[in-house]
Design a protein that fits this description.
By secondary structure, the chain is α/β, with parallel strands linked by helices. About 20% of the residues lie in helices and about 30% in strands.
């Protein structure tokens, strides 16, 4: 069930001022256009300020320059988007799936260690010597392999798989269908051309506040670890190869592929459908545009795009040239014809 919060309680939690009825109660969040009296919304862009008069939202997060409207309830802060996010996180943390304890259909090995308050949904499988810390929620049909360690306040959504000996630190989120610790793509090809599987003996480590999107896969290392550092967010349908190391606060957008043993620094952004070859490095504060191909080490901070990779402004300039290529060809043909005529006149 959803927990109820008053305006005064939300202001205290978000450390901000308020205006209106301190006892007004809300239970959820919504947009300005769609919010009802039991919901919180926010105004971040002044161009939508006219919506304040018509919104049905019970509480609106606004900045300190927005005029108050009599009869409405406001949370007032320098950054209403941040305030709204704080409240959203609070409300979502108190909304439950309906399975607050351990569902009777879950299969849990006797040697597994579950902290008090861990929630386990229907048809979850937990293998031997798994440890799960307090506040973590495991939704239905999740598989957790032997020796896995999961920290506090993690959320594992339905049908995710965490294979043996992988480690999740605190507040990790796995969206539905995410696979952590699948075998790395490693094969030995013999002289006859037959491929023989190389055992992948390492694991995957996800640090605090990592999120892995739906149907994304992070392969286990051949030895040691595939390592995803604190705060990194991985979109849906991403493939991360064995022994990859991602730095802190990376953003990896959908359909990106990162080959084995590649390494990124901190605050790296890989746009959708990017590709990163194995055994190279991407430095701190580098952004790769969608469909960018990283085929060699890049260390200079900045924005890049295209394949082969080049500075983004240069990449856009080259695209303009390509769009005008037909014009250039025609122009060159015209100039060549003029040169032929001039040569005929000159030598006639």
């Amino acid at each position: 069930m959803s927990k109820k919060f008053t305006l005064e309680e939300l202001a205290r939690f978000a450390v901000c001022d308020f205006s209106g009825d301190p006892r007004h109660v809300i239970t959820f969040v919504n947009s300005l256009e769609s919010a009802e009296p039991h919901e919180v919304s926010f105004l971040a862009n002044p161009r939508y300020r006219d919506l304040l008069a018509s919104t049905k939202a019970g509480i609106v997060c606004i900045d300190t320059t927005t005029p108050l409207i009599e009869g409405k309830n406001f949370l007032i802060s320098p950054n209403p988007s941040k305030t709204f996010q704080i409240i959203t996180d609070l409300i979502l943390s108190t909304n439950t799936s309906g399975f607050e304890n351990i569902h009777p259909s879950a299969v849990i090995h006797p040697s597994a260690c579950l902290a008090e308050g861990v929630a386990i949904g229907p048809h979850v499988t937990i293998d031997q010597k798994v440890t799960i810390d307090k506040g973590t929620k495991i939704y239905g049909n999740v598989f957790i392999g032997a020796g896995v360690s999961i920290g506090e306040n993690c959320i594992i959504y339905p049908c995710a798989v965490i294979r043996e000996h992988c480690t999740l630190h605190h507040r990790v989120i796995l969206q539905p269908g995410a696979v952590i610790g699948s075998c790395g793509f490693g094969y030995l090809t013999d002289p006859e051309g037959h491929h023989h599987k190389i055992p992948q003996l390492g694991n995957v480590i996800l640090e605090d506040d990592v999120e892995v999107g739906a149907n994304s896969t992070i392969d286990r290392a051949r030895f040691k670890h595939t390592y995803i550092s604190k705060g990194t967010k991985i979109d849906n349908l991403v493939q991360i190869g064995h022994n990859v190391t991602l730095g802190k606060d990376n953003l990896i957008v959908s359909q990106t592929g990162i080959s084995g043993s590649a390494k990124t620094g901190d605050r790296v952004v890989l746009g959708g459908q990017s590709g990163v070859m194995g055994h190279l490095e991407i430095g701190n504060d580098i952004q790769i545009a969608s469909r960018g191909g990283v085929s060699k080490t890049v260390t200079q901070a900045g924005q890049y795009g295209g394949y082969p990779l080049q500075p983004l402004q240069e990449f856009h300039r080259h695209r303009v040239y390509l769009r005008n290529l037909e014009k250039y060809v025609k122009r060159i043909e015209e100039l060549e014809n003029k040169i032929v005529l001039l040569e005929k006149k000159l030598y006639s």
